[in-house]
Amino acid sequence: MTDPEHVVVAGAGLAGLRTIEELRDRGYAGRVTLVGAEARLPYDRPPLSKKLMIGELDDTTLRPDLDALDVQARLAESATGLSGGVLTTDAGRYDFDALVLATGARPVTLPGAGRQHVLRTLDDALELRPLLRPGTALAIVGAGWIGAELATAAAALGCRGPVVEAAAVPLAAALGPEVGGQTAAWYAAAGVDLRLGQGVDAVAPGGLALAGGDWLPADVVVTAVGVRPSVSWLAGSGVEVANGICVDEQLRTTVPGVFAVGDCAAFQSGRYGTRLRFEHWDVALHAPEVAAANVLGGGEAYDPVPYFWSEQFGRMVQYVGYHGGAGQLIWRGDPQDGGPAAGGTAGRVGHRWAAAWLAGDRLVALLSVNAPRDMLQGRRVISSGVPVDPARLADPQIPVRDCVLR
Ligand code: FAD
Question: Which residue's alpha carbon is nearest to atom 2 within ligand 1?
Answer without folding.
Answer: 13
